[in-house]
Amino acid sequence: MIVENHQIAYKNVASKYYNFVPAEIDLAIQDFDAILSGHGYHSVGKMFFSILSNPTAEVMTAKLFIPIEEYDFTIPKEEEINFNSYFLIDRMIMTRITDDFDARSQATFSELLTYIEAHEMSRKTPMFVEFKETNAGKTNVEMSVGVSVLFEI
C-alpha cells in the first residue's frame, strides 16, 4: 500500500556521503556512527539514507543521515560531515516493507516509480529509506520519495 502526503522530519541531523556495495551498508553505518561518537556526539537511535545512484548499480552512492542529541556541531572539515539543525522533506509518497528487505527493496522501488507515473506525478527527491521500530520491537523499512503533481485542476 502506498501512502501519500508522507514526510520525513528530524532535528539535529548529521549527514555524510558514502559509496559501497549494497551488501556492505552496515559497514558504512558503523563507520559514520564511529566518527560521530569519536567526536563526542550521540545518536538518538534513528538512521535513514537516500539512494543517489541507480539502485541496481553494483556500487551504490548514498547519503547517510543520523540525528544526534547535540544541537551544537563542530567537527573537523576532513570528516566531510554536514549538519542541519532541522531536516524536513514533505509531499512524499511512502510504502513500508515489513520483512525480507533485501529481496523486496528493488520491487518496492519500482512500485513507487510506477505509482508516480500512474498518478501523473513527478519525482522531486532521491529515494529515502528509513528504519523504524514498532512498539512490539519489530523493525520495518519505509521507502519514500518526494513528488509533485503534474496537473492540478
Topology, element by element:
Blueprint: E1 3-20, H1 25-38, E2 48-51, E3 60-67, E4 82-97, H2 101-118, E5 121-133, E6 139-149
Characterise this structure:
With 153 residues, this protein is α+β, with helices and mostly antiparallel strands. The protein has one domain (3-149): Alpha-Beta Barrel (Multidrug-efflux Transporter 1 Regulator Bmrr, Chain A). Helices cover 21% and strands 46% of the residues. It has helices spanning 25-38, 101-118, and strands at residues 3-20, 48-51, 60-67, 82-97, 121-133, 139-149. It has a six-stranded antiparallel β-barrel with strand order 1-3-2-5-6-4. The two termini are 25 Å apart.
Which features does this protein show?
153 residues; alpha+beta; Multidrug-efflux Transporter 1 Regulator Bmrr, Chain A; 6-stranded antiparallel beta barrel; globular
Beta strands, count: 6
Number of structurally distinct domains? 1
Strand content: over 45%
Q: How is the biggest beta sheet arranged?
A: 6 strands, antiparallel, barrel
Spell out the helices and strands N to C: EHEEEHEE
Q: What is the structural class?
A: alpha+beta
* Mean of residue pLDDT values: 92
Calculate the terminal CA-CA distance, rounded to whole Å.
25 Å
CATH class call: Alpha Beta
Number of helices: 2
Q: From the 3D coordinates, which CATH architecture would you assign?
A: Alpha-Beta Barrel
Uncertain segments: none
At the fourth CATH level, what is the homologous superfamily? Regulatory factor, effector binding domain
Assembly status: single chain
* Sequence of strands across the biggest β-sheet: 1-3-2-5-6-4
CATH topology: Multidrug-efflux Transporter 1 Regulator Bmrr, Chain A
